[in-house]
Amino acid sequence: MRSVKLSALFSLLALALLSLAAEAPMAEPKARHFGIQDHEVLPENPRDFQQGRFSDYPTWPVSKELPNDSFTFARVIYPSYGDGHRRRGYSKWMTDYPDSDMNLSYRLQQMTSLQVNPNAAIVDIEAEQLRHYPFLYMTEMGDNEVTDEQAKVLRDYMLNGGFIMVDDFWGTDEWETFYVAFKKMWPDREFKELELDHDIFHAVFDLKVKPQIPGIGYGMRGKYDRSMRTYEWGKEGAEIVHYRAVYDDKKRMCMIICWNTDTGDGWEEEGTDPWYFQTFSEPYAYPIGINIIYYAMTH
């Protein structure tokens, strides 16, 4: 009789455990993370950056069946003058992070049919990290110290099917600094200027101008002094916006260079001032960003 009672008890325990398992919420699936693993300083979830001060940013579930079948916005760490490739404190690659990355990811999820990872990634210039992300973002490259070895990794990434968007650098001096890195990446080819009739300006949103988006400080000053200047004055050669492309051997665009415009600030600062949002973020920063990503992912 004792064995029968124990058997019954075990059966009841098993049923209770099964019931608890059925009631316990399943963990939300998430896309696999292939970026840096420095969770203390640069956490996998950008909402946890700086001790969680960005925790109120929206999130959303990814596909339960195919959690990795989603677009991840990936930002590249690169060395810039004086920072020694540091990860603590401010470095140029961090400009507008993480607000711009999360805002753009949210708008992509909201406004397109793309399945988007709510956790934007940060990647080192390492082939094993880069190969998992078909789209990379590099900002403030007018102040960089990209090495020959890093340039080769980036070139190989692009020639193997990847796409890089370079954004937010202004004036002739910053162009010349960027161009040094450019020639390390592309010693055998040059960029091509994109005209307004190129498909990238019409892929999703039909843009009537090549957008020049000022950082919010310059934009607000242009509003208040009524000049409505959209460039960073005080930097020679910053007045005219340029979109320049590099193509691989199959004539596929693999890099777009957005010079004399700050698309990332248009994403980052969308909630800072209604006028800035309505003048730059809504009509220009998000449309050109979404157009570039859509074009990159479909060509």
Describe the model.
It is a single chain. With 299 residues, this protein is an alpha/beta fold. 37% of the residues lie in helices and 10% in strands. The protein is built from nine helices and seven strands, in the order ααβαβαβαβαβαββαα. Helix 5 crosses helix 6.
Entry keywords:
9 helices, about 300 residues, 7-stranded mixed beta sheet, disordered N terminus, about 35% helix
Q: In what order do the strands lie side by side in the largest sheet?
A: 2-1-3-4-7-6-5
Q: In terms of per-residue confidence, which ranges show pLDDT below 50 for 5 or more consecutive residues?
A: 1-21
Residue-averaged pLDDT: 90
Q: Helical percent range?
A: 25-40%
| Category by helix and strand content | alpha/beta
Beginning-to-end CA distance, first to last residue: 73 Å
Q: Helix count? A: 9
Number of strands: 7
Based on CA inertia axes, which overall geometry fits? globular
